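Example 9 (inverse folding). The structure is encoded as follows.
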């Protein structure tokens, strides 16, 4: 539904996804994270920048070819209160220059605060990234 408390954007579906987005290990991690955040899954809009699993996807090139406009239009349609982008490679898909700090997205419907973090795969593989994510989440989610 439009107006979700949180939109979670991932680069792409998991390789084994068939009936819904993130039905494998990444989805289980995300479900646990949302529970720890105190967010009901019904309050979260989950989306992927790419429609299918695409190993070694060149997100900057895809963004330059127009997928950034598709992604930002999707966000504008959802009108989330906040956006959590799980994948630092998503920055070009959000119409933001790589390397520049990204704290919000401006679109025709307004502004959306953004937190850009590592992918779910990276969070699963590197426990120190999880700790960094939680510190950043606590700080970011406490701001209006």
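The amino acid assigned to each position is listed next.
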């Amino acid at each position: 539904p439009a107006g979700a408390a949180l939109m979670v954007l991932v680069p792409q579906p998991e390789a084994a996804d068939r009936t819904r987005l993130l039905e494998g290990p990444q989805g289980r991690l995300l479900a646990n994270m949302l529970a720890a955040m105190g967010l009901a899954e019904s309050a979260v809009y989950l989306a992927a920048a790419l429609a299918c699993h695409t190993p070694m996807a060149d997100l900057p090139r895809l963004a330059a070819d127009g997928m950034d406009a598709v992604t930002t239009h999707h966000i504008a349609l959802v009108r989330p209160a906040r956006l959590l982008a799980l994948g630092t490679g998503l920055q070009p898909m959000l119409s933001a220059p790589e390397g520049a700090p990204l704290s919000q997205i401006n679109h025709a419907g307004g502004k959306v605060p953004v937190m850009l973090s590592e992918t779910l795969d990276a969070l699963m593989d590197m426990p120190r990234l999880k700790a960094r994510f939680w510190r950043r989440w606590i700080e970011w989610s406490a701001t209006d």
